[in-house]
Amino acid sequence: MASEDVSFMRALCTGRIESELIVPFPTLPESDRETLGMVVEAIDDLLGPHEADFRAWDRAGELPTSFIEELKAFGVFGLVIPEAYGGMGFGSTAYSRTLQQLGRYDASVAVTVGAHSSIGMRGLLLFGTEAQRARWMPSLATGERIAAFCLTEPGAGSDAASILTTAVRDGDEWVLNGSKLWITNGGIADFFTVFAKTGEAEARRNISAFVVTGDLPGVRIGPHEDKMGLRASSTTMVYLDNVRVPADHLLGEEGKGFKVAMQILNSGRTGLGGGCVGGIKRLIERTTAQATAREQFGRPISSFGLIQQKIGQMVIEAYAAESVVNAVNGLIDGGSKEYAVEAAISKIYATEALWRSADEALQVAGGNGFMCDYPYERIVRDSRVNRIFEGTNEVLRLFVALTAMSDVGAQLSELASSVQGIFDDPIKGFGLMSDYARKRASLAAGFSRSGSHLTGIVPELGRPVAAFEGAVRKLATAVDRILRKHGKDIIGKQFASRRLADIMIDLFVLACVISRVSAAIEAKDPTAPQQRSILEAFSRQALRRVEENLSRIDDNEDELIKEIAAHALETGRFVWDNL
Questions:
Q1: d(CA 168, CA 170)
Q2: Looking at 390, 469, 559, 563, which residue is catalytic?
Q3: pTM above 0.85?
Q4: Is 547 helix (H, G, I), strand (E, B) or coil?
Q5: pLDDT one-digit tens code per residue, 521-578
Q6: Taking a C-beta distance cutoff of 8 angstroms, is the pair 197, 209 a contact?
Q7: DSSP β-ladder status, 191-197 and 207-213
Q8: Degrees, nearest 5: CA angle 14-16-17
Q9: Which residue, 396, 345, 315, 355, is CA-closest to 512?
Q10: At what angle do helices 257-293 and 92-105 cross, to 10 degrees?
Q11: Which of 62, 156, 280, 404 makes an SS bond possible with 163, Cβ 3.0 to 4.6 Å?
Q12: Residue-range domains of the chain with CATH
């Protein structure tokens, strides 16, 4: 099987380490690096003068039209659009790095650009016909048209297949009716990727994707939503009232819209991850400056161990998040077709790393952090939604666990059928059972098997590599045991799935960090000793979490928590009031 058809995490759940997917750590070609460097420098020139404006725009709840025009003139809406249509033609790595630079300045700006490129027009890039691309991409590249992604509805959030918006064929047109909720860029967009039911209502996934332009009669935009964070970005409802859409606006195949939506989200998740990395890096700059300048008890607070702990952890978070985001970018740019699980992990880790870092940065700032004159409270508000949109982290954890375990499930299903196979085809039946027995024995005993090593890593990192390999064997054993215990019922065992997902997240991020540090050592990077310290610290933290999650597979308080929750749901309140 070609490497582009293999998922690193799905293989990992079977105890197999597909090293070539992440080793060597991906790097940008020198030609792309030069172009990207100029773009990053130009973004600094574009956004730097507006630093004082971002707070005012946040309070006003709007990016001024004049500033949107500046973004258009810069070309920031054409980042991923091919050069043939007037765009920059950036791959995933260059695009993610650009979002990182935008995220350093203001999240509302980053999400405005990201919603356009990561999801709004991504379906056209991935599934559009040549005629469709030629028709719309030039205006999308210039920002004459800004794009929005219309999937979520009042009754359909994480359960995207339950949307109620309909599209009924009428001759050479489709008639769309419904409403879409929380649409980023809704108030400034003129190009909407809309998902609607095109078949029987009972067929949950009989969904199709359409390009809907703002000039079509029946398209109505709701008022600007008053949000907790990202206040300056445009978020509205979009209403579709008997909107007649020409048949050639169908995006991809009829009835395959669910696949279109998922591929769009998978493909664009590293843009969000890049923005989060940029946010953490800027927080480190602000926090180190604050800790150095502020004195308490006659000395700078930077000299106190608990402050150093916060700053050191922020650096670890930034390094690990950047490592996993860029490793996934490397998979995408390298032509991989199996990166959905890995992309979900990068989104989960980066968004939670930013949230933890924003919270700690505010804490270091003390009372100033709570004041609106300082940027910390806005950063905390802005970063909160990242764990919700583009797939809530809870749903993505279930997706990571259940998808990554699917190959093991298939093997167990095949094994079960081999019992009958012994009578129908003794050689095949006994072969399956003996292969499985050998695998189980080697995992249980901790023996190394073919494909169980992380290869291509410098010898200096032997200790974290060996620890990683040992944890992989434990993961494979745990997956096998849980699937044999629950079978198909694992879908409803969300506590167990979450634990497995958290183990998988830690192991994938650790593998990416190991690969990156190995590359730095091999390249004789003068900062390699510091990077190795980051790896050592992260490795210890991640492996402790892995061991804790493994220990709680059987020994846990899950049923007690569910019992307590059931009581609260039944009573609707906390019943132990002392008054």
A1: 6
A2: 390
A3: yes
A4: helix
A5: 999 999 999 999 999 999 999 999 999 999 999 999 999 999 999 999 999 999 998 7
A6: no
A7: antiparallel
A8: 135
A9: 345
A10: 40
A11: 156
A12: 30-142 (1.10.540.10), 147-256 (2.40.110.10), 259-404 (1.20.140.10), 412-566 (1.20.140.10)
